[in-house]
Structure formats: C-alpha cells, structure tokens
Amino acid sequence: MSGRAQLMWDEAVTGYDFGRDHPMDPVRLGLTRKLVKAFELDQHVDVVAAQPAGESTLRLVHREDYIAAVKAASADPRAADQSYGLGTLDDPAFAGMHEVSALIAGQSVGAAEAVWRGSALHAVNFTGGLHHAMPAGASGFCIYNDAALAIARLLELGAERVAYVDVDVHHGDGVQAAFWEDPRVLTISLHEHPRTLFPQTGWPQETGAAEGSAVNVALPAGTGDAGWLRAFHAVVPELLADFSPQVLVTQHGADTHFEDPLAHLAVSLDAQRAVQVACHDLAHEHAGGKWLALGGGGYAVVEVVPRSWTHLVAIAAGRPIEPTTLVPESWRQEVYARTRQLGPARMTDGRWPVAWADWESGYDPADRLDQAVLATRKAVFPLRGLLP
Question: What residues act catalytically?
Fold first, then answer.
C-alpha cells in the first residue's frame, strides 16, 4: 500500500455553479485548491483526476428516471422537471449540470477505489460530500450523492463494513436513506437540531431498519466548540470500535462554523481541525488506516472553507499545519484578485488548543447538549449491545 494520500482534483469541478446569487459559490473550491498549493502540499499527495461516474455507477444509488431527468435538465435547463427537485431555488438547473455532477461523483468513487485497493492509504475529495441528493431527487444543493455512491462502490468491491461519519451542520439524510436497510453500513451524523434547520430530519429516534445502523446526534442551535467536540467523542469512537469498519468515510462540511450564513452552530476552525485529526486517528485505530474524507457544505467561502479543507488535506497527507501558521501572502493576493475581499491571516480562529469535557467526566441533566447526547445513546447504543 502507498503511504501517500490522494487528492482528487479536476479543474472542471468548478463548473458546479448554480448561478451568481446562489450560496454554493464554486470560488470556494478554487480557493481551497490554491491554498493547498500555496502550502506546497502537492509535494506530499498524489493529485489525481478520476473519470466521471458513468450511468451504471450512478445507478448504484440513483434511479434511472432521475438520471434521465438530470441529463434532460442539463441539456435544456428550461425543461427542468421540478418533481425531481430540479430547477428549484435550492437546485437551479444549469447547462452541463449532469456532466459536472457526475465528475464530482467520479472523484469520490475513484477515491474509494484507491483506498480499498491500497493504492492510497487516505484520499480526499473536498469537492464532494453532496449528502442530500436522494435516489430519485435533487435536494439541498446536491444533484448526485457522491458520498453514497462511494460507499456503494466499496460494497460492490467486497467491503462488508463501511462506516460513514458526517459532521456537516445539516443532517446527512441522503446517505442515511441510501443505506437505511443495509447492516453493512453504519451512518453517523452530527448536525444542528432538525427543529431549527434543513432538512428537518436526523432525530435521535431515526436508527435505521438494520438494528441501529443509523445514528443521529441533533445538536442545539448555538452549540460551540466544547459541546461539539464533547458530542463527537461521546458517540463516534465507541460506535466505531464496536462496528470495526474496513473503511471509514467522513464528510467535513465547514458550515458548522460561527461565521456560516446558513446555520446556527458556533464552531471554530480550530474545532473543525480537531475533529479532522480525530477522524484520521479513528481510521487508523479501527479501519486499518483506510480513510476517505469528503467536503460538503460551507458558505463562508473565503474566510472559512479554504482554510478548513486545507487543514483536512494536510492531515491526510501526514503534514498537519500548525493552527498559528501564517496564511501565505500569495494566496491572500489571489483571494483579493478573485473576490475583492481580504483573506484571513492565519490558519486559526485563535481558539487552539480547543478544550472540551469527556463524557466519562459526568453528565449534567439540565444541559441541553448533554440531553442531546444522551438521547442518541439511549436510542442507538442498546440496539448495538452497548450501554447507553
């Protein structure tokens, strides 16, 4: 097995563009790629462009009629069929939509193949993580569900246990739905409570049809670093130790950040980095190091997303960036040239190291975060033979 990580990248992914006023601005992808280069991480990863996912691969998750509808809308955006979630405010149709969505999906599938076959120990596709797309519909800025497709490909290649951990601020509903009845896949999602955020799913009681194969931690709005890390460590490590996955797939939407305009958590870049490190370590502890890391949401497209995902690439490459490191001036100039905004100066929000209290240190029944964690543990852990 290669000790190097793979970074999946094709410049054409920046064509995933819903239009000028849409929150998912593809500049976040281009700026992340530039920051990865500015830190010279290309010297420590194999940069690979995979082929677009073909129709037979897309059908591992998506219905044939939906794929046909995406192709039709891609050829003529005015003909988009809204019954498939296409041509809506969240998912406007645009020319070439099928091609670029299949390209992003192909990067995640290619990354999964590389990790499974041992040509890379870790692989990162920060352009992916489009976790809301359903078998028969677009949803939440997502056309094809690359995360679910990557997992489905791993199963097709012979994997018997794949764990998926999603720390995007939104519930990983599409991935959960794809594997709701499949005991080979454990899905874990930590997200803002469905009472206050799209897609209004991800309640603790959603535990899957396969005896606790779906796990949901619904965090109160306003949860910050200490609570977010406490919840992650109170749920994820114990479940992964029990499940013993052969591959760990993680989704790292950066929209948990306190500056994100579309959600209500209060997590810093430093806490996001801490969870990225934890996922890397958990992959080595429980999955033989086989780790596929994806991007996801994130709508503070200059201030947050490029730094968060550059940390992710650096961790996967075995070259973690110290949070206090100065951001290269060349990249800040690139930011200004593209956006007329001033880029951040350091790879930190000034909260490193992040402190949090371990679950074993005690439970406060009056604390809303602890209530959320306990609700998840009570709903899922007994189904898996674990103590809540």
Answer: 132
